[in-house]
Design goal:
Elements lengths: L1 H21 L7 H29 L1
Length: 59
C-alpha cells in the first residue's frame, strides 16, 4: 500500500512539474494528471501481482 501511494505521489508531482512549469501551454488539466497517476498506480499494482507468478513459472 505504501508503494502505491509513493508511485501516485511521484507520478503526480512529475506531471505537475512537467506540464505546469516546463510546458505550461499543453492543455493538460489537473484532472488529466490525476487520472493518469491513478492509471500508473494500477498498472504497477498489476505488474507487482503478476511478476512473481511469471518468475515462479520459469524457475
Amino acid at each position: 500500500m505504501r508503494t502505491s501511494i509513493f508511485y501516485f505521489v511521484a507520478s503526480f508531482l512529475l506531471q505537475v512539474i512537467w506540464f505546469g512549469l516546463i510546458h505550461p501551454h499543453k492543455g493538460v488539466t489537473l484532472l488529466d494528471m490525476f487520472m493518469f497517476s491513478i492509471l500508473f498506480v494500477v498498472l504497477f499494482f498489476l505488474i507487482d501481482r503478476v511478476l512473481p507468478f511469471l518468475k515462479k513459472g520459469k524457475a
